[in-house]
Every structure is written in structure tokens, then in C-alpha cells.
Amino acid sequence: DIDPESLLPKLPDPDELRPFPTTCATIFRGHEGRVRSLSIDPTGKWLASGGDDGTVRIWELLSGKQIWSVKVASDEPANVVRWRPNAEAYILAAAAGEDIYFISPISILSPEEEEKSRAILDVGWGYAASSETNGQSKKETPAKWARPGARLEDQGALVRVTVRSTIKVITWHRRGDYLSTVSPQGQSSAVAIHTLSKHLTQLPFRRLKGLAQSAQFHPSKPVFFVATQRAIRSYDLQKQQLVKILQPGARWISSFDVHAGGDNIIVGSYDRRLLWHDLDLSTRPYKTLRYHKKAIRQVQFHHGGLPLFADASDDGSVQIFHGKVVGDLMENATIVPLKVLKGHTVKSELGVLDIDWHPRQPWLVSAGADGTCRLWN
Amino acid sequence: MASTEETKTAQVRIQLTTRYPDIELPDDPGPLLVSTGFRRYALSTLVNNLLQTERPVPFEFLINGQFLRTSIDEFLTANGISAETTLTVEYVRALIPPLHVSSYEHDDWISSVDVLSGSSPAVREAEEVSSGQERILSGGYDGLFRMWNMSNEVIATSNAPDEGGHTLAIKSVKFISPQKIASSSMDRTIRVWDYSEESATLTPTLELYGHKSSVDSIAVHSQSSRILSSSSDRSVGLWTTKKSEAPSAPENLIPKARNKRRKLSHPTPSKTGTQRGPLSLLTGHTDVVSSAIFSPTDHTVGYSASWDHTIRTWDLTTSACVDTRTTAHPLLSLAAMNGANLLAAGTSARHITMIDPRASATTIAAMTLRGHTNGVVSLAADPDSPYGLVSGSHDGTCRVWDIRSVRPGVGEVGGGQVGESVYVIPREILKEKGKSKAPVGGEGLKVFGVCWDKHVGIVSVGEDKRVQVNKAGDIIRT
Ligand SMILES: [Mg+2]
Questions:
Q1: Cβ within 8 Å, pair A111-B254
Q2: Do A26 and B350 touch (CB under 8 A)?
Q3: Alpha-carbon span B396 to A332, nearest angstrom
Q4: Does B305 have pLDDT greater than 90?
Q5: What is the least distance, in Å, from the CA of B156 to any CA of chain A?
Q6: Taking the domains of chain B in order of start, what are their residue ranges?
Q7: Most CB contacts within 10 A, which of A18, A121, A247, A261?
């Protein structure tokens, strides 16, 4: 008899796939209540976090020292924080309720950086003023761009954009001028694309089939991905048309991420699935992984050149995978589970709510319902 | 076959030697016949008898450069040495476990520490620091550094931001001389201060601008008035502390108070005419530079370690990078061993890599020191030995290493020789709380800085807001 297992291609030994995160190196304590979101800045030195206490905080990544904070909401969680993906200036986008704040955390900036950041945020005021006088009525604008007031401006929150419904997702375009927000309950305004240099908000999808869950820009092409509960659609932004519909087979998608090459997508779902799609192959997933006992909240590729990806779950764990994408159309990605990172405690059925990879190092950060962020290396 | 009885009584010829004149045997007894069952303790007793010491002095023994940790018989077997040969056995004073001496409490996390004593490089021959008059500098995340005397008293504190002090956390502080101090900060500046012992005052004299991000470490060379700095902006800075020789500061990096809000974020320099720029900025690293040091033998040579995995050698006269060594991990700290051509680099992967920076060296990593359970962020060489090193880690411990205490690394990443620490120094606060094991991620106990002074001992600082002094008994190497 031949053991059928022996006919399967052998997966590489995880030890040979180092480096990848294995150990909790730092615990970031300070938030009162859940930490909802976190993001490492493009230089890789600072961690930003947002939580149920309505604060946005910045920490020194290795030491875990909190060095800056601002309270952006008194009655709502700071649900999302995302650094602008460009190291020339420090700008943090943070969402609480229906508001997005663009923050330039002045105390860690050099005068030069502060000036650049301020210029990037201020350039749109003139544009917005001129388009308003051109007859566009305020009623029609899908979002209101305003100065957030002296208290917040003194702390570096220089611009506030208010949309119609609570924002759950922010994703930046790689150049740092466009960003997209997703407000799942927003119906026709659920997905918005904002242009920072023009202080302009557009609603590209008047009708979406299902509740919007997440959105992403293609890493190199003018293509935009939108996930509803069951499907991920890609759109050509220039031709304004639907390109492809992916059917991961999950009942409720929570998040997805596009590989730097643009042809592979990972999808996480509340029904505990992690799915890998190869866009060259099929609209169905190439691989379905079911390791978690509870919902998967977040998935992310390492975007700094390492063949790694990770997911975060309400079971309190983060799982690290090797995921090597090969250029060859005929060859599939090699996927190897590497490590389960445990440490966050589950609070009221909620575990790890967000993760982010370091821009270059094999380091990961996670945000927990237990009120902590953790650095794993 | 030899019977068990015979094995037990087997003997081996040893020749005792030492490189320390004060413990040399008065009359060379020549080769001695000892039992192969002898271990360190029996050999130590033998040497004490030969020396006729009044009180027993604990000795350690080296055979072929390796510490004897087993019986001689087991050592011979493990190393494939015949019992027929005469063994050369070197003896040294045993390191005495460093004991806790005192703790100095702060209000905030402490990032860095330096010591001034009679043996400090910052003290010139003409000057003197008598015993008991030593000073400790501690740099804090509160943006201030403090000068302590040996009686746990703060005798001077650096200025507040609106009086010429740092506006963000201090990352490094060093004595340049008994009257001069340099500090670096997350606020992107290095500041030079005059210290007066009579009035116990610190006066800011220079603000050095040039780095575009946090200045995470500085090294000083007192005789040439040079400072070498490393920054998150991926560059290494070379500076002079002589105002007249320093280039002017880059205008775009000096904060200007233009409105109220900006004034809050970047206080106006308190004095005009004190801002200066770098002699040069050395570029090449592709990630955060965690540490930069002068070569201990030639101050025109600098070394830097970076998150980009490399150690670079710089010719500071021409500002040229003359060598790049690539390791396997992000590097978080760097120190040069005293009197040996070795650099020690601490990694985020929880170990220390020993590197021979000479161009002639063929291997990348000469040795790996393992034992820490979190990133190794600070290193200091033993002031008295070319083999000794102390490391400070985010795991909440300092470890003392003797690079002669090694075993061959079989099947481990990197291979080569693997060293194990001789002593682990935990945080005293952990003992006070009745615990023995550091919590996950060294939380609350992370060590950020460590310094090893011949007179004061091993001084370490960290997240527990304490300056902790540990000192071995005087017997260690007098
Ligand atoms: Mg393919």
C-alpha cells in the first residue's frame, strides 16, 4: 500500500523559512478599553493606535513608550488609524464615527517635516473654496472638509472630513494623495474616495450589491477592489467599469489584502476562513485555510518584500504564514503555516482586532480587545 | 580494558600558568600530576595552597582557551585530547557574581546611563576623581538628564525645554570631561553642557542640528572633542564640541517660533549663537542606525550598527565607508571589546554577534552569544578584560559574558562558536516584588542602557525608572 500522504509535495520546514515573528517583544499599555486599530509609520519607528477611549496614540515601536496622544472623540471609538504611505511627511489618517482626521503629530517632526506635512494638508483649502463658488451646492457634496477647531489643531489634527456614516476602514493609495473609506452602513455612500490635494470626496459606487466591508487600491494599476459580504469586485478606475468578481466562498468577508505583485489576494472571514486567491487562476480561491476557532478580523501581506502574511482572530491569536508568490503563471504560491502567536486575552468574545507588518523587518504588531498592542519579532 | 577503579585514579600532568603577575606562583613547581577527576574547585584549592593565600581566592581554569566546566577527564574526552600529554592550564580570578549595591529612583523610564570615575575615558591624566566622588548620569524619557552622587542624591538636573533643554525624550547621555556633558534626544538634537561642581549647575552651551530624526546614540572622544552620533534618519553624524570649529547649523532644521502653536511644539532656542551643524553626515545605511562608536585604538575610525543588518566601518577623516559587514539580523547595539579586535553587536533576534572588523578577517561572525529572550539594546565592554562584556536587554536582564566561555554551536543558525552568559543580573525591583521570572516581553523591566565602570561597577537603567548599580566583590580583578 502506498500512503497517499507520501504522494503530496512536501512543504518546507518552518525552520528553513526564517525570519518570521515568534515572540512577544513589547506590550503597549495605555488605552482604556479595546484597541481597535494600529499602524506602523513608513520609517518603521513609530506605532499609531486608536481605541474605544476615543484616543489616537503614538508609541516608540521597540520600547513601547507612548510619546504622543490626542482625544478625537468623547463618545465614540477611534476605529481606524492608517499612516500615509510616504516617508517624506508624517500624516496619520484616523477615523472616529463619521469623521476622518488628518493628523500631523508635530512633536516628533522636524520643522522641515512639519512644514511639508502642513503643506500637503493645506493645499486643498484653496481648491475646495474655488469649487464651491463654481456653483456646487453643499447639499450635494458627499463629505464636509473643515478645520477641526483650535484644540485639535493645536495638537496637530489639522483637517477633518465628515462623511454620512461611521467609517470602519481606511486605505491609502500608494502615492498618498488618494485614500478610500468604507462605511458599511452607508448604503450609496458606503465607499468614498477622497483626494487630499483637492479636499474632494467622491462616491464611485451608487449601487453596491451587499454591504461594503473593505476596499483596496491595486498596488500598481488604476484598479480598485471592493469587498461586500460575499464577493470582491475589482473595478478599472479609468474606464469606470467592473473587471472581475471573486467568489471566496465565505459567508461574511471581514477583510482582504492585495499582494504587492497585484495578482494574489488573501481574504479573511467572520466564518473563520482564510482564503488565497490567485487572480490568474480562477474567481474561486486557490487555497482555503481553516485554523481559527473564532472569526478572522484582519489579514495582511508583508509589503516590504518578505514572503509572509498573517491573520488575526477573535480566538485571541495571530497566525503567521509563509506565502511565496512566484512569477510563473503555471506555478502556484507556496503557503506554509509558520507560527501561532498567543498572548492577547479574549474580552467579551473579541480577540485581536487589527494587525500591521513592519514596512521592512519581519516584525508584526497586533491590537487587542484586551486594551493592549503587542509587537512580535 | 581499564577497570572503574583505575579510571578514578587516572592522573594527568598539568602545567599551571597565569597572565596576571600578582597571582603568579612564587616558585614554578613545573608540571604537576593531578587526578583527571579534578574539577574547578579541586584545582582552585591546589592553586590557593601553592600561593599560600590567607583567605581562599576562587580561581577559574582555562584549557586551550576554554573554561573548565566539567572534570578534567570529561574535558579531555569531549575535546579528544590524550591524557598522556602535559596540559597547559591557565588560571584567572573567578568572576564574583555582581551584587546589587543601590538603586536610584526616577519618575519616568530611563533610556541611558554613563559613569564618571577615576578610570573613565572622560577623565584626563591631570584630573582626578577620588573614590566616593564618582558621578552617574541618567537620561530620561521625561527629556531631562540627572547627575547623581554616590549617596543616591541628585546633584544637578538638565534644563527644561524653555531654558535650552531637550523638548522630547533623551536617548543618550555621556561625559565628555568632568566639566562637560553631551546629550542626544528624540527631538533630533545633540546638546553640549558645561557642568560646575561648585555650583552644581548645568549650562547649555551648544545645540547641534543636522539629524532629521531621533538621535538614538552618541559616543564621545574627549581628547579630540569629537562626538559620533547615530540616528533613525539612517545617518551617522560627526560633530565637534568646540564652538569655534563647528560649522553653522543648517537653517532648515532650526526651529523658528512663528506662531503660538509652533512655539509649543518646538521651543525657541534660549540663546542665540549656540546652534551648530555637523562636521559631516555619513550616509549609506538603509535603515535606522542604532549605534555608532569610535574605534578604541584609533579615533579617526568609527563603527556603526543598523537595523539594515550591517556594521559599517567609517574613515572619519575622509567620511568614507571603508567596510560593510552584513549579518543575519537587525542590529540594535554595538560595543568594542577592550584590547581585542572584536566588536559585539546586539540583535533584535535575542543574541549578540561577535565580529572581527579587520579587513583581513574571513568569517562574518566570530561567535554568537545566546541566552537573552528579547532584543539586546545596550552593550558595554569589561573595563579590565579583553574577554568581558555586559549586555542589557528588553528581556529585563543584564548578562555578563566571558567570550572564553564557549561551546561549539552545532545545528544552530549561524553555527560557529556559541557563548553562554556567566551571570544574569535581574532587575532588583523584581526581587522586591517577590518574583523571579520576568514577565512577557520584559514588560515593566526592559533594560535600555548599561555601563561598566572599573570602580562603580555595572550600572543599568530601564523601564523600572531606576538606575541599578551592581558590583562584584573587590576580589574580582584588583
Ligand atoms: Mg500565479
A1: yes
A2: no
A3: 44
A4: yes
A5: 25
A6: 4-93, 99-471
A7: A121
Q: Which residues of A touch B332 (CB under 8 A)?
A: 62
pTM score of the predicted model? 0.91
| Residues B447 and B393 sit within 8 Å (Cβ to Cβ) | yes
- The answer to whether B93 contacts chain A (CB < 8 Å) is no
From CA B359, how far away is CA A297, in angstroms rounded?
51
Q: Do A25 and B448 touch (CB under 8 A)?
A: no
Q: What are phi and psi of B22, to 5 degrees?
A: -70, -10
Distance CA B321, CA B171 (A): 25
pLDDT of residue B116: 97
Architecture, CATH, for domain B4-93: Roll (3.10)
A171 CA to middle of ligand 1, Å? Answer: 25
Edge-to-edge strands, sheet with A364-368: A24-29, A372-376, A364-368, A352-357
CA-nearest residue to B254 within chain A is A111
Are A62 and B188 in contact (CB < 8 Å)? no
Domain B99-471, CATH homologous superfamily name and number: YVTN repeat-like/Quinoprotein amine dehydrogenase (2.130.10.10)
C-alpha cell at A58: 503614538
Asked if the domains B4-93 and B99-471 are classified in one and the same CATH topology, the answer is no
* Best CA proximity match to B349, nearest among B378, B375, B377: B375
Cβ separation A67–B287 shorter than 8 A: no
Low-confidence ranges of chain A (pLDDT < 50): none
Beta bridge partners of B380: B390
- The pLDDT > 90 percentage for chain B reads 68
Q: Answer for the pair A199, A125: CB distance below 8 angstroms, yes or no.
A: yes
Cis peptide bond upstream of A19, omega within 30: yes
The answer to whether A74 faces chain B, any CB pair under 8 Å, is no
| Cα torsion angle, A144, A150, A152, A158, sign | positive
Query: Does the predicted interface ipTM exceed a cut of 0.90?
Result: yes
- What are A350-365's pLDDT values in tens digits? 999 999 999 999 999 9
Rounded to an integer, what distance in angstroms lies between the CA atom of residue B407 and that of residue B70? 13
- CB-CB under 8 Å, A343 with B261: no
Chain A partners of B374 at a C-beta cutoff of 8 Å? 23, 25
Give the minimum alpha-carbon distance from B371 to chain A in angstroms, rounded to a whole number: 14
Q: Do B373 and A343 touch (CB under 8 A)?
A: no
Q: Which chain B residues are Cβ-neighbours of A111 within 8 angstroms?
A: 252-256, 266
B287 in A contact zone (CB under 8 Å): yes
Residues of B in contact with A108 (CB under 8 A): 168, 186, 214
Contacts 24+ apart (CB under 8 A), A138-147: A141/A201, A142/A189, A142/A192, A142/A201, A142/A202, A142/A203, A143/A192, A143/A194, A143/A201, A145/A199, A145/A201
How close is the Cα of A328 to the center of ligand 1, in Å?
A: 6
* B255 shares contact with chain A (CB less than 8 Å): yes
What torsion do the CA atoms of A66, A72, A75, A81 make, to the nearest 10 degrees?
-70
Give kind and range of the element (H or E) at residue A261.
none
Report residue B5: phi and psi, to 5°. Answer: -60, -45
Sign of CA dihedral B430, B431, B432, B434: positive
> How far does the centroid of ligand 1 lie from the alpha carbon of residue B250, in Å?
50
Number of H helices, E strands in chain B: 5, 36
Looking at the DSSP bridge assignments, the partners of residue A160 are A101, A146
In the numeric block, which cell numbers belong to residue B213?
Answer: 530624526
Residue B475 has pLDDT above 50, yes or no: no
